[in-house]
């Protein structure tokens, strides 16, 4: 769907999430959410915080799994996705800390593979993802699944694309400070979610949105894999949709 602007679109996504949480609450079940970082979902989180504070939306039954984290990364660093999620969402709602999962950027290299398997198993153990939010990088990455990622890939350590590191350089005060690696849920992990929403705003994303939606399905643009799934919706503002 294409919306007039990102503010309206972000509210729509927040209301959808709120509906899922509430319908699960009525059934006495947990809502399992896959969350993303970056500038794109910030207003969705703002709206969820508002729904919590002003309309009493509770997150007590919510379990979250974040898509990715830089590697290496200390959780208290300003650029960590732990910090991002705390500041933009978790510090302002009533979610239980032990229901929050974000890939650990502090692991020893030799422990990563096992950790990633356990991350997948934790998602399965709570019944799988009900809802997954995605942004898109200019390389066509979802999570940090860069070009070359396989459609059945699982959670793993990946190497970041040069363009991705350039795009992140402002946060890190120079590309040379951006980690070269990250831990990310795989395309296969994302695909298991029962509902997936990819959001994109602004003209800057228009060329990659055109490729993702209309381009040939290929590992060169990992987001094109989303064309294969029926549970995916693209939520765009007019600018991001302007090359479709
Ligand atoms: C990062 C994140 C992605 C995100 C992308 C786009 O690379 N790992 O999950 O989708 O950036 O970021 P932004 O929303 O800031 O454009």
UniProtKB/TrEMBL annotation:
The keyword Hydrolase applies. Keywords: Hydrolase. One of its GO terms (molecular function) is glucosamine-6-phosphate deaminase activity. Residues 8-228 form the Glucosamine/galactosamine-6-phosphate isomerase domain. The keyword Secreted does not apply. GO terms for biological process: carbohydrate metabolic process; N-acetylglucosamine catabolic process. This is Glucosamine-6-phosphate deaminase. It comes from Christiangramia crocea. The gene is nagB. The chain holds residues 18 to 261 of 639 of the full protein.
